[in-house]
Write a structure and sequence with these properties.
The protein is an alpha+beta fold. About 55% of the residues lie in helices and about 15% in strands.
Length: about 110
Amino acid sequence: MAESKKNDPRSSFEVSCPCCGTRLTVDPQFSKILLTRPPETGGHERQLDHASQTLQKDAARRDLLFERSLEEEKEKSELLERKFQEALKRSKSQPVAPPLHDIDLD
């Protein structure tokens, strides 16, 4: 009688949750979960370790991006200062002339 129940398509079956590893016993006739069993290998600890490692990697990446941004801002201010000095030198060597207007060209 146990074999007939085992081959019965209406008998319950067991699946594993891909996220946390919990084992679920499902009754297909009623489409309901009959039993849940937590993972045997400490799935929550594994998830917490993975989350902690991910947060550490993200923090390191944010720090690196911040340092790069800071360096770019320093270089940007130096570049703007050089451009200003160059424009100042150029303006001193050129004579000052009144600007031309469209009406002056007629």
